[in-house]
Amino acid sequence: MTEDHRTAAQDAAVTHLRDLLEAHFREAEDSADEDGKFSIGFRVTFDRSFNPTKLKVSCRIAKTITDEVESTVEDPQQPALL
Prior knowledge:
Layout: H1 3-30, E1 41-47, E2 54-60
């Protein structure tokens, strides 16, 4: 791959990434947690088995909800101490 091809592939990937960011930024903001944090993950795939090279840029926005409960479970066979 020539330097011109590398530059063209990188430029195309950055353009697609920017397009996806602009298209989905509001949705990502809406997925923010209670601290206001949110994230967008991007994946860029170059497939050189095709001529010309195929380029795929995808983004992922996910909201993770974590919850927990802690307790103790007494042994039902053990009498309670007074």
